[in-house]
Amino acid sequence: MENRVAVLSIIVEDLSMVEKINNLLHEYNEYIIGRMGIPYKQRNVSIICIAMDGPLDRINGLTGALGRIPGVSAKAAFSRA
Q1: In whole angstroms, what is the distance from residue 39 CA to residue 73 CA?
Q2: Span 27-56, average pLDDT
Q3: 44-76 pLDDT, tens digit each
Q4: Which is nearest to 38 in space by CA: 11, 8, 5?
Q5: Alpha helices by DSSP H, the chain
Q6: Is 61 in contact with 54 (CB distance < 8 Å)?
Q7: Which domains does the chain have, with CATH numbers?
């Protein structure tokens, strides 16, 4: 399967789930190009942006797994090729 470049946007509203998120990201680390985390204390949330290069099914798998964690929202945007 052909690799795609993608950006995952993650909003963490339940900060007790950070360990689960980090464990998942570690499982997919071979596809992660970079990561930026922003703690937004005024709203008690964290914003995480992940740049990836990998197969579409693996990127979608990570996005779905993150979205199934309570208190976490995740969306992905993909390159066209």
Answers
A1: 15
A2: 97
A3: 999 999 999 999 999 999 999 999 999 999 999
A4: 11
A5: 18-27, 56-67
A6: no
A7: 3-78 (3.30.70.1150)
Residues in the chain: 81
b/e sequence 10-33, b meaning 16+ C-beta within 10 Å = bebeeeebeebbeebbeebeebbe
Amino acid at site 17:
M
Q: Quick check: 1 pLDDT over 90?
A: no
C-alpha distances in Å from residue 36, one per residue of 2, 47, 51, 57, 81: 25, 8, 9, 23, 24
Model pLDDT for residues 12-28, shown as the tens digit of each residue: 999 999 999 999 999 99
